[in-house]
């Protein structure tokens, strides 16, 4: 148990430190990618990627938030993907 | 409960209610502003239904039922985006007639990198429970070989099903890589009992209302996506909780620690005009040593460790011209489950020792939409005593 407690503390501390260090810096590669590319790379990872026409714009916002939380996507990539899906609807 | 644990749980709940409080005021203001605008409802009702068939191919007992439409179900899922910070998700599952609330979780975004959630939620341990179990995501007609009540005296829910608790989660961009995390505190596991009320040593994780003790389980998963195209993700998970009954002098302190490693690699490759998908998860649970009852007076003990894993590969020629082929996915899965060698339960070899069950699955999925598909599989299970079971399975899964 002691080992696990130490491990948990180390993990929490590590993540905390990473959050502080990263601050508002976002990965340049992601910034350079289009919403379409991010959609193609990310939305096929767990299931088939739904296409923009499968849901309405309002629904994409709800789905975007759901996937950001469930699939642990970054803020930036989720926003770009949702914008892409809405714009191609 | 230990004060140390309270130190974790109370601030988590406090943080949650404070942010919720602030945000509900914001939500009210937003609602007032938006009430005149049509089409602002952020509720999404989706769901999935399924229907399955099973044929056992090598059962020679003339009285056994070997062919059956063996499963049906429907799962509506309700998703509410309440504001930019608040989200509620819930799913009701009706499986072979039994109704269950799968999850009901409220999440609150604290900042770009952290969200706090509370309620009944899918277990953030391993990738399978949260990500791959939903029936429209599972590409085979059935789940992989799991330590459940088909093979053990009780259902372990070791890395699937739900927990009741609080979690924090998020994703951090690290240059061109990403790191994601989910850490939770929940009601802990339970040491399952036989019909005489004696513990068996099997650990049951879906102990939603924690009827056995005050201990709270801590656990979580860290995921790493080293490549900028997100094709590869490797996850490490751990959890620990006390499974014995409160105040029980023999079993009261029995703890269970579990670990999991998961991996997924998904990539569309132009050269072969196909999408390949590789995924797998290894799980192990280690239970503190204790004496268990053979009869009411004699006891015995054993190393209570169990291992279970599966690896799965699939290929779908998604970029070819043929309309038929591009909807077809070929699947292969290998499964293994090793129960404790000297336990009274679990599959045994010819010498009565616990052994490894393996299963090989070949499958085909024909996709009718991104969420709807017809699945077929041939599966062969090898028991440690040398016996085999061969099955044909089919299912139709329709998502909407």
Your description of this structure?
The complex is a heterodimer of chains A (89) and B (400). Chain A has 89 residues and is mainly α. Chain A folds into 2 domains: 1-32; 34-89, Cytochrome Bc1 Complex, Chain D, domain 2 (Orthogonal Bundle). Helix content of chain A is 69%, strand content 0%. Chain A starts with a helix and ends with a helix. The mean pLDDT of chain A is 83. With 400 residues, chain B is mainly β. Chain B contains 2 helices and 20 strands. Chain B has a 16-stranded antiparallel barrel. Chain B has a two-stranded antiparallel sheet with strand order 8-9. Residues 31-39 of chain B have low confidence and may be disordered. Classes of the chains: A mainly alpha (89), B mainly beta (400). The interface between A and B is large, with 44 and 58 residues.
Descriptive keywords:
heterodimer; A: mainly alpha; Cytochrome Bc1 Complex, Chain D, domain 2; B: 400 residues; mainly beta; Porin; two-stranded antiparallel ribbon; 2 helices; 20 strands; globular
Can you describe this structure in just a few lines?
By secondary structure, chain A is mainly alpha-helical.
How are the secondary structure elements laid out?
The complex is a heterodimer of chains A (89) and B (400).
Chain A: H1 2-22, H2 28-32, H3 35-42, H4 57-70, H5 75-87
Helix pairs in contact in A: 3-5, 4-5
Chain B: H1 3-34, E1 43-56, E2 67-81, E3 86-95, E4 98-111, E5 114-122, H2 128-132, E6 162-174, E7 177-187, E8 190-193, E9 199-204, E10 216-225, E11 232-242, E12 255-269, E13 274-287, E14 291-293, E15 299-301, E16 304-316, E17 328-338, E18 356-367, E19 373-382, E20 388-399
Antiparallel strand pairs in B: 1-2, 1-20, 2-3, 3-4, 4-5, 5-6, 6-7, 7-10, 8-9, 10-11, 11-12, 12-13, 13-16, 14-15, 16-17, 17-18, 18-19, 19-20
Beginning-to-end CA distance, first to last residue of chain B: 44 Å
- Low-confidence segments of chain A: none
Strand order of the largest sheet of chain B: 1-2-3-4-5-6-7-10-11-12-13-16-17-18-19-20
- Over all CA atoms, what is the radius of gyration of chain B? 23 Å
Order of helices and strands of chain B: HEEEEEHEEEEEEEEEEEEEEE
SS field, number of helical segments of chain B: 2
CATH class division of chain B: Mainly Beta
Integer-rounded radius of gyration of chain A: 16 Å
CATH fold-level assignment of the largest domain in chain A: Cytochrome Bc1 Complex, Chain D, domain 2
Quickly count the domains of chain B.
1
* Shape verdict of chain A: elongated
For this structure, the CATH topology of chain B is Porin
Find the count of extended strands of chain B (DSSP E, 2+ residues): 20
The largest sheet of chain B, given as strand count, sense and whether it forms a barrel, is: 16 strands, antiparallel, barrel
Amino-to-carboxy terminus distance of chain A: 52 Å
The proportion of residues forming helix of chain A, as a percent range, comes to 55-70%
**Overall morphology of chain B:** globular
Q: How many domains of chain A, as an integer?
A: 2
């Amino acid at each position: 148990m002691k080992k696990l407690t130490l491990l948990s503390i180390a993990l929490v501390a590590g993540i905390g430190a990473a959050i502080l260090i990263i601050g508002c810096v976002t990965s340049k590669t992601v910034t350079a990618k289009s919403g379409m590319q991010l959609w193609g790379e990310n939305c096929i990872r767990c299931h088939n990627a739904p296409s923009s026409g499968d849901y309405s714009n309002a629904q994409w916002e709800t789905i975007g938030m759901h996937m950001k939380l469930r699939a642990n996507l970054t803020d930036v990539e989720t926003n770009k993907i949702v914008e892409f899906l809405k714009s191609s609807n | 409960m230990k004060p140390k644990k309270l130190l974790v749980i109370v601030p988590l709940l406090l943080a949650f209610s404070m942010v919720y409080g602030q945000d509900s005021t914001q939500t009210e203001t937003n609602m007032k502003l938006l009430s005149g605008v049509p089409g602002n409802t952020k509720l999404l009702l989706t769901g999935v239904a399924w229907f399955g068939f099973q044929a056992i191919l090598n059962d020679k007992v003339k009285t056994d039922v070997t062919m059956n439409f063996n499963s049906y179900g429907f799962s509506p899922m309700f998703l509410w985006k309440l504001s930019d910070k608040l989200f509620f998700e819930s799913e009701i599952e009706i499986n072979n007639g039994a109704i269950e609330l799968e999850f009901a979780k409220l999440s609150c975004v604290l900042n770009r990198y952290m969200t706090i959630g509370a309620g009944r939620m899918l277990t953030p341990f391993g990738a399978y429970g949260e990500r791959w179990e939903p029936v429209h995501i599972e590409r085979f007609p059935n789940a992989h070989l799991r330590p459940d009540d088909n093979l053990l005296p009780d259902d372990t829910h070791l890395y699937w099903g739900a927990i009741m608790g609080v979690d924090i989660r998020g994703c951090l961009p690290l240059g061109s890589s990403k790191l994601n995390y989910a850490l939770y505190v929940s009601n802990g596991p339970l040491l399952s009992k036989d019909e005489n009320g004696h513990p068996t040593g099997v650990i049951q994780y879906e102990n939603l209302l924690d009827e056995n003790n005050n201990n709270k389980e801590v656990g979580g998963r860290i995921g790493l996506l080293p490549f900028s195209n997100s094709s590869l993700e490797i996850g490490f998970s751990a959890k620990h909780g006390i499974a014995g009954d409160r105040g029980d002098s023999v079993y009261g302190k029995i703890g269970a620690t579990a670990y999991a490693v998961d991996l997924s690699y998904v990539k569309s490759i132009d050269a072969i005009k196909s999408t390949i998908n590789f995924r797998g998860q290894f799980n192990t649970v280690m239970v503190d040593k204790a004496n268990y009852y053979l009869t009411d007076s004699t006891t015995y003990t054993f190393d209570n460790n169990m291992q279970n894993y599966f690896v799965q590969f699939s290929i779908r020629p998604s970029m070819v011209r043929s309309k038929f082929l591009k909807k077809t996915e070929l699947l292969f899965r290998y499964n293994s489950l090793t129960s404790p060698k000297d336990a009274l339960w679990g599959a045994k070899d010819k010498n009565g020792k616990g052994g490894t069950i393996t299963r090989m699955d070949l499958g085909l999925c024909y996709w009718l939409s991104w969420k709807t598909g017809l699945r077929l599989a041939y599966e062969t299970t090898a028991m440690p005593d040398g016996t085999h079971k061969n099955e044909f399975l089919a299912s139709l899964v329709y998502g909407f």
